[in-house]
Amino acid sequence: MSTTTSGRSGRKIVLWRHGQTSWNLERRFQGSTDIELTETGLAQARRSARLLASLKPDAIVASDLKRAAATAAELAAVTGLPVTHTDALRETYAGEWQGLTHEEIVEKYGEQYAAWKRGEPVRRGGGELETEVADRAAPVVLDHSDRLPVNGTLVVVSHGGTIRTTIGRLLGLEARSWESLGGLSNCCWSVLGEGARGWRLLEHNAGTLPEPVLGDDD
Q: Which DSSP symbol is given to 101?
């Protein structure tokens, strides 16, 4: 898939991770499990939405899972923009890993986990490959960015793993190096800007009060 832009200068893509959930606090792998925000997560979304609104976004597209949809709703409330929901922006489906804590995954699937960390293509828990997540998510992000006006801004509300793979794909990085992109804290975001040769990473894990990354791929 081509990662080049269509020539409309100045466009930006803001990739915003959802707020905190109870499974984040427990370091439990959510994947595509539909977990709601905690009260803290909702407060994070409200605070971050006020900051992102200052960027004057032109469009919002979000994962249809509750934690992302509720986060997106806070920005919609401030900006008055509609939200387009899509299952293409859901977190990585991780099969048997979903619902397990980090410690349980390492204990039960140690070799699989180690291979994934080495950058090998792994179907974690029998689920999706990271490249398959990028295959479904990146085209949706590009499609919505192509609809932006000159200097327009798109906000994508999604999940840690999906955002990382999408950034990796849009930057044209090899899949084995995507892990070099650090995780996003809850309700923090990354910004891609349009350059002469494609998308560039302008900001990563930006936010008001950065906190430890909890449950990177969820």
A: B
Beta strand pairing status for 189-195 and 12-17? antiparallel
Q: What is the rounded CA–CA span in Å between residue 115 and residue 27? A: 20
Structure tokens at 158: 């999604």
Whole-model pTM: value is 0.91
Active site residue 18: yes
Convert the pLDDT of each residue in 106-129 to its tens digit. 999 999 999 988 889 999 999 999
| 83-86: strand order across its sheet | 83-86, 59-63, 153-158, 12-17, 189-195, 198-206
Contact 157, 65 (CB under 8 A): no
Single out the catalytic residue among 36, 39, 85, 91.
Answer: 91
Among residues 198, 160, 185, which one has the least CA distance to residue 13?
198
The structure tokens listed for 26 are 């427990």
Catalytic residue among 18, 74, 130, 159: 18
pLDDT tens digits for 22-61? 999 999 999 999 999 999 999 999 999 999 999 999 999 9
Q: Is 204 a catalytic residue?
A: no
Q: What is the DSSP letter of 185?
A: P
Q: Give start and end residues of each alpha helix (H) in the chain.
A: 22-25, 39-53, 66-79, 102-108, 110-117, 130-146, 160-170
Distance CA 214, CA 218 (A): 9
